[in-house]
Amino acid sequence: MQQHIRGNRILLLVGFFFVLSGLPEAKTLVWQDVANDLMSPACPGRTLINCTSGQSEQWRELIRQKVTQGETKEEIVRYFVELQGEEILAAPPKKGFALTAWLLPLFVLLNGAGLIVVLTTRWARRRPPTTPVANAPVPTSESSVQADTTSDVYRNRLRNELEELNR
After folding, report:
1. Which of 76, 85, 92, 155 meets the CB 3.0–4.6 Å disulfide criterion with 98?
2. What DSSP state is assigned to residue 149?
3. In angstroms, rounded to a whole number, what is the distance separating the alpha carbons of residues 94 and 39?
4. Domain residue limits, the chain
């Protein structure tokens, strides 16, 4: 009986370690994660991590201090947004009017694809059936030849050559 309980305990421990090994590891926050999400105050169009100005270096140092104090990424980003406004964010927030910056490209892409599908089906339906040139009827009477346009040089030439052959 004791061996049975002992075997169950071992199975339980093995199962416990198996479950723990499948859990994702806790990600430690590094200052680069925060600096990638913030725009530089001194270098227009560059993130904080890519700017070489003195002010950006001061901000990176402030981020390092906040990370070592245990603040989360959201708290640090919120601090800089309160300090500078939402323009400091590298990507617009996914709420309110700024949500259009995320949804507009998707909207344009879907409408463009729909437009392509609609236009190609319309163009495919409008295409007249083509008849091979070899099977085209040759006009034999003069009235049908006169019905053709006389401005077409090649038709006139063909008509003249056919008239010469019929003589």
Report:
1. 92
2. -
3. 17
4. 2-88, 141-166
Joined together, the tokens standing for residue 129 give 């059936």
Q: Are 39 and 89 in contact (CB under 8 A)?
A: yes
Which pTM does this prediction carry?
0.44
**What digits encode the pLDDT tens for the residues 103-125?**
788 889 999 999 999 999 888 88
**Tens of pLDDT, residues 57-116:** 888 898 889 888 988 888 998 898 888 887 888 776 666 766 777 778 888 999 999 999
Contacts by 62-66, CB closer than 8 A, 24 or more apart: 63/31, 63/34, 63/35, 64/31
Classify 132 as helix, strand or coil.
coil
CATH architecture of 2-88: Orthogonal Bundle (1.10)
> What backbone torsions phi and psi does residue 38 show, to the nearest 5 degrees?
-115, 145
